[in-house]
Design brief:
With 103 residues, the chain is mainly alpha-helical. The chain has one domain (5-98): Alpha-Beta Plaits (2-Layer Sandwich), CATH 3.30.70.1290. It contains four helices and four strands, in the order αββββααα. Helix 1 (5-19) runs antiparallel to helix 2 (46-64).
Length: 103
């Protein structure tokens, strides 16, 4: 993502996480996707958190960066990948996100 857009995206996602009492453990913004390990109350549900994050970030980024409307038909696709890590060491999870080729 372009400088400014990725920083604003991070702010938006942290805001949604804070509102929903979720914890973003690590965030890696890539040109066409992002890695976002997050701890969320299972009663709230990861699907709801993802929907809120995608919806709010799409709406706000397209308002604040109008050129996104003309370059992209949509900001996000409907798909996403979720995996649980249970008792995996947090350091290993962070390392796999920071340097996915080493894992």
């Amino acid at each position: 993502m372009v400088q400014g857009v990725d920083e604003r995206l991070k702010q938006i996602l942290h805001g949604v996480a804070t509102e929903r009492r979720a914890e973003i453990i690590e965030m890696e913004v890539m040109p066409d996707h992002l890695h976002l390990p997050v701890s969320v109350d299972p009663q709230f549900g990861i699907h709801r958190l993802v929907r809120l994050m995608k919806g709010r970030s799409s709406r706000l980024l397209r308002q604040e960066f109008p050129w996104l409307k003309s370059r992209l038909p949509t900001l996000w696709t409907n798909s996403y990948f979720v995996a649980t890590v249970g008792g995996a060491p947090l350091a290993a999870i962070k390392q796999s996100i920071e340097d996915p080729k080493r894992v």
